[in-house]
Every structure is written in structure tokens, then in C-alpha cells.
Amino acid sequence: MRVLSTVRFTLLRMLRNYIVLLLLLIVPIVLISLFSLILSGAVTDTGEPYLKQPAVSLVLCFQLFGGSTVMYMIHSELFTEHRARMQMLPISLTMYAFSIMLCGVVYSVMLGVILMTFTQFVLGVIWEHWLWTIYLITLMAILSSVVYLVFMLAVKVYKTAERLSEVYGIGFILLAGLFFPMPDHAFFRFMGSYGNPLTLSTIAIHEMSMNNTSKAWFAANILLAATIILFLVMMVVGRRRFMRDRV
Amino acid sequence: MTVFKFSLKRSFSNKTNLLLLTLFPIAFIFFPEGEYWPVLPYGYQYFGIVLLFISIRLTTIILVDRAKGVVKRLAVAPISYGSYLCQNLLAFSVILVMQCAIVVYGGVLLGVELYQPHWLMLLYVSFSFTSLAIALAWISIFRSKESAFLIYMSLVTLLAILGGLLMPLQIFPEALIRIAVLFPTYWLNQGMSWIASEGPVGDFILINGVLWLYTIIFMILGSTRKIH
């Protein structure tokens, strides 16, 4: 368990990356404040504020990009800059990789929770089931770091992996129909509902607030299953990549 | 025209750029139409954001030149900084104008309802110069390519929302509508609604004039030579 002593530094390094903080925390806070200013307290027929829907989507959308820190750190620690240094250390590299991943997920979830707190206490959006929402945010964060790592490990050039990860983030936002309605076609209908992590978690949160527990768990479990499968894929691809790059 | 030629080559040599500059605008032709809003199909409504995005990707060439010390070498070469800048900007604007042409006339070919395609082309060209000038001014205050690009993208999102490109301006509160006038995206949006409503030509000239005013201001801000 020597790895535990590195956790502090991993977290510090993540916190000091001000660009990530700006993009994943300040930008969503500014956006949601802007939305609240624009919608200025309008409510739907059922009495729910219009702001609720954008707030849920925004918190979840930015989780799609949460894996970037993990991808960047694992790449520099285990594959390029610090690789030789890390192999000298008397720690298990697998555990080290997991610790980086875990830190990244915790960091990403923390940003999500800060955003939730901000929307609840400053803008007055009521989040009914905090624990359930945090569970879904965590699932999304794990899924995004796993997907990002699969990209990084499967593609040779790091820049291509970065582009792919952007396609993953922006693509699913587009497919969820947040920018404009998608055409009515079987593929888009699937990708706008059960084939899309963003809509799956939105459905889960929405159903839970309507007290449809079984439907909510169903959506969340699909997300969990996808995460587990991709995690196994990541393990296999990652081991092969690490051995192949061995000097 | 050596700089111009190489600027064109460098813009297309990057694989991501190649995709962005060719397939991206074509994809935008096929975006669906909105029901009540926007007046033009979604692809055309959002095309202004794409222009802002592509301009920053193109102008980072100048930023890279500065970071790598190419500008320093140019200072002793028999070429003035003005000519270097102009040739680069000319190459970028050729690319941007080509993209506008692809989107507008491609749409006409496929029979998308664009009301007055030639005026729309003019509006896009005006806006692409504005976005080029803004990007030029923006990169002049940065040293790192990544941070310049990422911070700019978050700024673009704000510009797009406040200018009414992502949401109809009608639902904005009074104060925000007044502030919106300050943003170039607002004028692009006004131009697009003018094209759909076919108002007097004077209004359209005013809209383009404002865009060109922004172009001149930001061009002046961004054109100073900086040697680190």
C-alpha cells in the first residue's frame, strides 16, 4: 500500500491544473448562471422551474469530459515523461494507475457536487435525491475516464486520442439532442435514449424524482454494465500497450 | 506570395484540420430545420460558431510561429512583418470564404430554404472576417496554443448564447437584450433574421457595417508585432 503516499500529490497536481478548473468548473457555473438569468424564474405547467432540466444536463455533460485529467496523467506517468522513473519505484504500477484513476474520478465528482451545491443554494434548483444524483455522477465520471483511457491505450498517437475523446463528449451531447432535435430514425432514437450515457443518467435522475424506482435503477444499471465491460476492455488493451512499449 | 502558399499548406497538412475544413461544413448543410426557431435551418444558425472555431484553429499558426521564434527570424529576413501578416490573413480568409461558399451554395444545390442565398453569403463573409480579427487579437495575448484555444472556446460559448445564436433572443430579459448589442454574434443573428424577413436593404448594410467595424478594431489590436 505504498501507493497511498502518492495519492496526495496526484490530487495536488490535478487541483493545480487551472485550465481544467476553468473549463470544468467556472464555465458551467457561468453558463448555468446565465441560463438562470435568461429563464428568470419561469416555471412549467407542473410547477417545476424550467432551469431544472438545463441544470441536470449541464452537471452531467461536463462529466463526459472529466476523464481528460486521468488520460493526461496516465499518459505522462506510465507511457512517456515519467515512465522510466515510475518503473524504478518500489510500487505496483497497476495500483498506481488505479490510484490515478480514482483520484481523477473523485476530482471530477467533486466538481459535479460543487456545481450541484451552487445550483441549489445560489440559483434555487432543488435536487431531490442527492445521493442518487451523486451515484450517477460517479458512474458518468468512471465511464468517461475508462472510455478516455481506452482511446489513449488503443490509439498510437496521443493527439488522435485527444480528438477522439472530444468526439465522444460532443458527439453524445449532440446525439442527446441538446443542440437541435435529431432526425426521427431508429439509430438516432436509440442513441438519444438507451444508447447514450448522457440520456441514460438523465432518465435515471428524472425517473427517481418521479418515484419510479425500478425504471431509474434499470437506466443506471445499463450504465454500470457498460462501465464494467469497458473497464475489462481497458485492462486488456492497457496491459498489452504497457508491455509493447517496454524498452 | 511564399508565406501565403505555405500558410495554405500548413493549414491543410494537419489531419484534424483537413477534416474540419472539408467535411465539417458539408455536414452542416444537412442539419434539420427548426419549428419556430431558428429562422434558417440549424446548420446555418450555428455556422457562425463554426467560423469562430475555425478562425482560432487557423490563427494558431501565427501563435506557433511566435512561440517557436519564427517571427524573430522573419525580423532579419528581407520581408516586412506587415507582409507576413497580410499573406497569412489572406490565406486564412481564402479558406474561410471557401467554406462559406460550400455551405451556402451547397445548400442551394440541395434545395435548402435559404430565402436570399447571395445576401447570406455576404453576411457570412463579413462575419468570417470579424471572427478572424477577433481570433487574431485573442492569440496576441497568449503564449501557449492549448490555453489560448481552450479559453477561447469557452468564451465562444458565452458569445454564442449572449448574442442569441443558441437561444432565441425573445426569451431574454430586457437588460440582457440591451447588452447583446455589444456582441458581434448579435449582429450575425440580426443579419440572419433580416435575410428571412426581407426588410429594407439599408438595415442589412448597417449590420454588415457593424461587423466590419469590429473587424477593423480587432485587426488593429491583433496586428502589433510581438517578439518574446
Structural class by secondary-structure content of chain B:
mainly alpha
User: What does the main sheet of chain A amount to?
Assistant: none
Helix content of chain B: over 70%
The average pLDDT value of chain A, as a whole number, equals: 89
What is the number of strand segments of chain B?
Answer: 0
Number of helices of chain A: 11
Greatest contact between two chains: A-B, 19 and 21 residues
What does this structure look like?
- The complex is a heterodimer of chains A (247) and B (228).
- Chain A is mostly helical and 247 residues long.
- Chain A contains eleven helices and no strands.
- Helix content of chain A is 76%, strand content 0%.
- Chain A is globular, with a radius of gyration of 19 Å.
- The two termini of chain A are 27 Å apart.
- The model of chain A has no long low-confidence stretch (mean pLDDT 89).
- With 228 residues, chain B is mainly alpha-helical.
- Chain B has one domain (2-222).
- Chain B has ten helices and no strands.
- Chain B has helices at 2-13, 15-29, 42-68, 70-76, 81-109, 117-139, 145-162, 174-180, 184-197, 201-222.
- In chain B, helix 5 packs antiparallel against helix 6 (117-139).
- Classes of the chains: A mainly alpha (247), B mainly alpha (228).
What secondary-structure arrangement, pairings included, does this model have?
The complex is a heterodimer of chains A (247) and B (228).
Chain A: H1 4-16, H2 18-39, H3 52-61, H4 67-79, H5 83-88, H6 93-121, H7 130-154, H8 158-175, H9 186-191, H10 197-209, H11 213-244
Chain B: H1 2-13, H2 15-29, H3 42-68, H4 70-76, H5 81-109, H6 117-139, H7 145-162, H8 174-180, H9 184-197, H10 201-222
Write a brief structural summary.
The complex is a heterodimer of chains A (247) and B (228). Chain A has one domain (4-246).
